[in-house]
Specification:
By secondary structure, the protein is α/β, with parallel strands linked by helices. It has 2 domains: about 1-145, 3-Layer(aba) Sandwich (Rossmann fold), CATH 3.40.50; about 150-380, no CATH class. It has 14 helices and 11 strands. It has helices at about 10-20, 40-50, 80-85, 105-110, 120-140, 145-155, 190, 200-210, 210-225, 265-275, 305-320, 320-340, 345-355, 365-380; strands at about 1-5, 25-35, 50-55, 75, 90-95, 115-120, 140-145, 165-170, 235-240, 245-250, 255-260. The strands form 2 sheets. A 7-stranded parallel beta sheet has the order 4-3-2-1-5-6-7, sandwiched between helices. Bound molecules: NADP nicotinamide-adenine-dinucleotide phosphate. The site of NADP nicotinamide-adenine-dinucleotide phosphate has 28 residues, from helix 1, helix 5 and helix 8.
Length: about 375
């Protein structure tokens, strides 16, 4: 039995992970965490009977009024995540918290030499150099959960790293791919929350609408696969069907892709079972008896709509503090948009301005990243309209 600590169990990835674990053999859940959704966390505890239930939002603890199954301990606060990530009995940490809040527990799992099934892309965007160093020093293995990175991870196995020409990261283009740029200023929250192909948590859905999700994924891919951005080892293609999850081109011109219906349970399952592939899981299958069309469009980087991709490329190339700043500014801008304080088309320019104006450092420590992250959030202001 492989024992899993699932951080962010009450979220979209967390629930899909429990779907997978509940269906396949060989894995059990030793720890689950939730932040505000106490009722669901309690239901999950009843069903999976983990050793630890972590309530990360300390202020929500007074509302906890359930008893837990015998042998299950309730832990409160973010620190419990880093402690439990390092527990000897944990084999796999599923990092599925949303936003920068996932960084410390991902770093703790890296330090403890665990397998990390990584959904929380923001921890690599904000702290890629630190997390990668900790993983290398302590023998931790990072297996991506993000569908694109899982596809790249799988496709890379068709050749040697030295034979790689480029990675082609696919993007659905989000709900506004076909909308003229000048109409983006009128986009409402309800429209931005309607993703055409994926059913995900609020923040990643909004990031997909602005294409900032792809910017985060560009930076995540650079760290995960040590891509040389200067050499052009990363390209983005818009692929509205979200069936080809990403591709890898080798130096002989062969392109290897991974295809499957848009369902996060497959990359989650792969991250748990790698290097094995197992049957019997809950994932959807491709129906090869139906006609299918797969389209690919090259993004036009001169259009404002695709500026997030350009910003992602620039940030990945720069490294250092650029990622943590981009991520913090984006989290603040997205939440300002959800409160109606920022227009949809202002999100990316606001983030760009903050990234360009910050005091760049090439080699920050985890502590310096934390301070800078806080500073960007505290000083965040919405632009005058
Ligand atoms: N959803 C997808 O299909 C998908 C695909 C690829 C990658 N990802 C990545 O996976 C991560 C999770 O996404 P999601 O869509 O599952 O998000 P989500 O549905 O919003 O769930 C987020 C989880 O994090 C917890 N959480 C929220 N704020 C927290 C904080 N400050 N401290 C600790 N825990 C906190 C939430 O707890 P409560 O709900 O209890 O408050 C919930 O368990 C993100 O990094 C996202 O980019 C998601």
């Amino acid at each position: 039995m492989k024992k899993i600590a699932l951080f962010g169990a009450t979220g979209s990835i967390g629930r899909s992970t429990l779907d997978v674990v509940g269906t396949i053999d060989g894995f059990c859940v030793s720890a689950i965490s939730g932040h505000r959704n106490l009722e669901l966390l309690h239901q999950q505890a009843e069903r999976f009977r983990p050793r630890w239930v972590i309530l990360t939002d300390g202020s929500a603890a007074k509302e906890w009024n359930w008893s837990l199954p015998k042998g299950t301990e309730l832990c409160v606060g973010m620190k419990a995540l880093t402690e439990i990530a390092a527990e000897a009995e944990i084999d796999i940490v599923v990092s599925a918290i949303v936003g920068r809040a996932g960084l410390e527990s991902t770093a703790a799992a890296a330090k403890a030499g665990k397998r990390i099934a990584l959904a929380n892309k923001e921890s690599l965007v904000a702290g890629g150099a630190v997390v990668k160093r900790l993983a290398k020093e302590n023998g931790a293995e990072i297996v991506p959960v993000d569908s694109e990175h899982s596809a790249i991870f799988q496709s890379l196995q068709a050749g040697k790293r030295s034979e790689l020409e480029r990675v082609i990261l696919t993007a659905s283009g989000g709900p506004f791919f076909r909308m003229p740029d000048e109409e983006l200023k009128n986009v409402t929250l309800a429209q931005a929350l309607r993703h055409p192909t994926w059913n995900m948590g609020t923040k990643v859905t909004l990031d997909s609408a602005t294409l900032m999700n792809k910017a985060l994924e560009i930076i995540e891919a650079k760290w995960l696969f040590d891509l040389d951005m200067e050499r052009g080892e990363l390209e983005v293609m818009i692929h509205p069907q979200s069936v080809v999850h990403s591709m890898v081109e080798f130096r002989d011109g062969a392109v290897i892709a991974q295809l499957s219906p848009p369902d996060m349970r497959l990359p989650i399952q792969n991250a748990l079972t790698y290097p094995d592939r197992i049957g019997g899981g809950p994932t959807r299958r491709t129906n090869w008896r139906l006609d299918q069309t797969l389209e690919f469009f090259a993004p036009d980087y001169s259009r404002p709509k695709f500026d997030a991709l350009k910003l992602g490329m620039e940030t990945a190339l720069r490294g250092g503090t650029a990622g943590v700043v981009l991520n913090a500014a984006n989290e603040m801008a997205v939440s300002a948009f959800t409160r109606g304080e920022l227009r949809f088309d202002q999100i990316v320019p606001t983030v760009r301005q903050i990234v360009e104006e910050h005091d760049f450092q090439p080699e920050p420590t985890l502590e310096e990243l934390t301070v800078l992250d806080e500073e960007i959030r505290t000083n965040f202001r919405t632009p005058e309209n």
